[in-house]
Specification:
heterodimer; A: 186 residues; mainly beta; SH3 type barrels; OB fold (Dihydrolipoamide Acetyltransferase, E2P); 3 domains; six-stranded antiparallel beta sheet; flat; B: 340 residues; three-stranded antiparallel beta sheet; 37% helix
Chain lengths: 186, 340
């Protein structure tokens, strides 16, 4: 048993005989009363999402999951394919489970696939990944008068990110996949 | 470096200029309406009693070597009620207040600007009209604002929803049927939440409220006054004469943000003393130091505080709304996240 205060995204909980993935959580302190943790859960077997609030000192049944390093290959028709380089085992994951992450998948990227009882639940991306800038406007030097110090850039994966004006098309940059923010030039 | 951020980012610099204008407009509103500004101390000997609010402590050193533990206010409520008892009927304070051990997220800073005002011989419903007028004045008579992509219609009157109505509308039940521990516990379990042995009635209430009700307020296109709280959450408000299961308290939500908290004030010193004693038990239960009761405050109540209503409004959050800022760090000069 762990305290609900210790959970993070991707934690798996067993609740009322069902198993749920924590897809989001927020600490809330109402004006009068204890501290709470508001969570968004997804039933592993049912796929149904629901919201549930716990008191922050509650114990919950955290379930161990299987984490396996796999390499992203390609996607086809909404299904994303990964391969385990040591066993050559291939796994397809429905893109619906990869919301917010699939835009950061580039061919060959190594990710952590999270499985529970053989069912793929989610993936964890490396925090910082290098991408090529596929498209961006040339930044005009001295454009800071208008208050703009960043411009939009499209990465090789199709994801967009705000970058400093000096970044050019074709350059490689490092992006924080958790926040979606530009970190630095590669 | 924060000052470099302010220097390089037009948005934050502009927000600070707008902030100055808003503070000035707030003072103008109260001056025009005959309120006296009271700048009561931020440093006090007897702190606020609410056990869910943690206080900052410091040490007073006197010239003769004596030391005394003092506290920073979580709100100027005690001092302002004493001033009401002293005979000034329309007063306000706009100053910093301090709350320890809070989440450092987009809506909280341990040091924040709280506007609190009181008027004698008005009801808490009258305060709802006053807030609407204040925001109208401060916003420059805007009929609507855009906040985080959503349009909020500021035309008066705003939504007035009782806690019972809110539960019926969003949680699908009549709150009056769940005012006892056993009934609320059964409801919580039926809805699929957890219910532990150490959960109080309020804890069970909030599990449902925070999940099914409060989040839905952000969907509304108008500000919402949520009024008549269950009596166990009365804090320093008076019990409703017409229905003692509820208290004369309301909270104002705009854009999903809790902006203000208001009471038809409790002026019965005997009842207040009882509540303070209960607060002390809660403080100890939560592992906090037991706080001394402000006897001077109880005396002011006993001497005869006139019927009055009061309200506390988070100025930083109001400015967040009026500048479409997602984070409190965008509307204050220096923020704890960057300082500590």
């Amino acid at each position: 048993m762990s305290s609900i205060n210790e959970i993070s995204k991707e934690t798996i909980l067993r609740l009322n005989g069902e198993v749920y993935l924590v897809t989001d959580f927020q600490h809330v302190n109402p004006g009068k009363g204890s501290a709470f943790v508001r969570t968004r859960l997804r039933g592993i077997k049912t796929g149904k999402t629901m919201e549930l609030t716990f008191k922050s000192n509650e114990s919950v049944d955290v379930v161990e999951v299987e984490r396996r390093k796999m390499q992203y290959l390609y996607n086809n028709d909404g299904m994303y394919s990964f391969m385990d380089n040591s066993t050559y085992e291939q796994l397809d994951i429905n893109g619906d489970l990869l919301a917010g992450k699939k835009d950061y998948l580039k061919e060959g990227l190594e990710v952590m696939v999270i499985k529970f009882e053989g069912i793929p639940l989610s993936i964890q991306l490396p925090n910082k990944v290098t991408y090529k800038v596929a498209q961006t406007e040339p930044g005009v030097k001295g454009d800071t008068a208008s208050g703009n110090v960043t411009k939009e850039a499209t990465l090789e994966t199709g994801a967009t990110v705000r970058v400093p004006l000096f970044i050019k098309e074709g350059e490689e940059i490092i992006v924080n996949t958790e926040t979606g923010l530009y970190v630095e030039r590669a | 470096m924060r000052w470099q951020e302010i220097k390089n980012q037009e948005k934050i610099k502009n927000n600070l200029i707008k902030r100055s204008d808003f503070l000035s407009k707030i003072r103008g509103f109260f001056a025009n309406n005959g309120f006296i500004e009271i700048d009561s101390p931020l440093l006090v000997a007897k702190p606020n009693m609410e056990s869910n609010l943690d206080v900052f402590e410091t040490t007073l050193r006197k010239n003769n070597g004596e030391t005394k533990t003092l506290f920073l206010i979580t709100s100027p409520e005690f001092a302002l009620k004493k001033i009401l008892a002293a005979g000034l009927p329309k007063i306000y304070q706009m100053s910093k207040s301090f709350r320890n051990n809070e989440p450092w997220n987009e809506n909280h800073n341990p040091e924040f600007t709280l506007l609190e005002w009181y008027e004698t011989n008005v009801s808490y419903f009258d305060l709802m009209d006053q807030v609407e007028k204040l925001v109208d004045h401060v916003s420059g008579h805007q009929s609507s604002i855009i906040f985080q992509g959503k349009e909020i219609n500021l035309a008066r009157p705003w939504i007035r929803l009782s806690m019972q109505e809110a539960w019926a509308k969003y949680a699908g039940v009549d709150l009056n049927d769940y005012l006892t521990y056993d009934t609320m516990r059964a409801l919580v379990l039926k809805k699929g939440y957890t219910a532990n042995a150490d959960d109080s009635w309020e804890d069970l209430f909030f599990k449902i409220f925070l999940t099914e009700i409060e989040l839905r307020f952000a969907d509304e296109t108008q500000p919402i006054f949520l009024y008549d709280f269950p009596v166990s959450m009365a804090a320093m408000s008076r019990v409703k004469k017409e229905d003692p299961r509820y208290a004369e308290r309301f909270e104002l939500y705009i854009g999903g943000l809790e902006i203000a908290n208001a009471y038809g004030e409790l002026i019965d010193s005997v009842e207040q003393a009882k509540r303070f004693a209960a607060d002390q038990i809660e403080q100890v239960k939560r592992g906090l130091a037991k706080r001394e009761i402000d006897e001077d405050f109880l005396q002011a109540l006993q001497s005869g505080l006139p019927e009055c209503a009061g309200i506390a409004l988070g100025v930083d959050r109001l400015i967040m709304l009026l500048t479409d800022s997602k984070d409190i760090a965008e509307v204050v000069p220096f923020c704890v996240k960057e300082m500590f």
